[in-house]
């Protein structure tokens, strides 16, 4: 029957599902595979068509046994690829976290450098103030009669130095925020700031005795 429909036979052979051959079929073909006369060059002496079928059967049998050995390796390879993808994803996540940490460290280092520069500038200002005080002391010693007046001036300077941080904070706030307000509102705001500086324990000049932007920024301390 099969040989009477050569096209159907060829179509069946070419479309055969070689990856899912049942073991029962393989067992049935083994008696033919093991037969000493079931070889292409022997069968070719009797039938060319049967030779092709012999070659096909032997090829399917060989493919089945090879695929049977290769399939576990394919599964291991697929599992290894999945594990590799998971590892790479974990690595990418770790690298992203590391970059975030490095960015934070860089920001902290920049902030530290800024604060260090500010500290050095304040130290320079303190040294300059101390130098001025020293010169004032020496000048008072030389002037004699001016000692009392100079003493009062030094006391004023010392008080101004003690109040410097609070006065500068006040002046900076006034420059930054009070420009658009009325004089009455600025007056109330200044009194509120003065109260807040006192609550925070920050020394400052009093508003009633001249705490204002012009005095803080225009004085020659």
How does this model look, in words?
- It comes from Kipferlia bialata.
- Keywords: Coiled coil.
- Residues 77-139 form a coiled coil.
- This is Dynein heavy chain.
- By secondary structure, the chain is an all-alpha fold.
- Among the domains are: 6-83, Histone Acetyltransferase, Chain A; 163-221.
- Helix content is 78%, strand content 0%.
- It contains 8 helices and no strands.
- It has helices spanning 6-14, 23-33, 40-43, 48-143, 147-162, 164-177, 183-199, 213-218.
- The longest helix is centred in the middle third of the chain and has 96 residues, at 48-143.
- The chain is rod-shaped and about 145 Å long.
From the structure above, extract its key features:
single chain, 221 residues, mainly alpha, Histone Acetyltransferase, Chain A
Task: Spell out the blueprint of helices and strands.
Elements (H helix, E strand, L loop, with lengths): L5 H9 L8 H11 L6 H4 L4 H96 L3 H16 L1 H14 L5 H17 L13 H6 L3
């Amino acid at each position: 029957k099969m040989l009477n429909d050569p096209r159907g036979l060829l179509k069946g052979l070419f479309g055969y599902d070689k990856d899912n051959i049942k073991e029962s079929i393989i067992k049935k073909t083994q008696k033919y595979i093991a037969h000493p006369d079931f070889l292409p060059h022997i069968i070719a002496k009797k039938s060319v068509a049967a030779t092709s079928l012999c070659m096909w059967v032997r090829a399917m049998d060989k493919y089945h046994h090879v695929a049977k050995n290769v399939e576990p390796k394919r599964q291991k390879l697929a599992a290894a690829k999945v594990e590799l993808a998971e590892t790479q994803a974990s690595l990418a996540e770790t690298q992203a976290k590391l970059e975030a940490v490095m960015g934070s460290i860089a920001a902290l280092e920049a902030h530290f450098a800024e604060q260090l520069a500010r500290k050095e500038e304040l130290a320079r200002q303190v040294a300059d103030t101390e130098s001025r005080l020293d010169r004032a002391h020496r000048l008072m010693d030389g002037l004699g009669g001016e000692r009392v007046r100079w003493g009062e001036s030094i006391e004023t300077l010392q008080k101004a130095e003690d109040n410097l941080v609070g006065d500068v904070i006040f002046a900076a706030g006034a420059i930054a925020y009070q420009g658009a307000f009325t004089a009455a509102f600025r007056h109330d705001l200044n009194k509120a700031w003065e109260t807040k500086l006192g609550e925070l324990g920050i020394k400052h000049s009093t508003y009633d005795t001249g705490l204002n932007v012009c005095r803080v920024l225009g004085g020659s301390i």
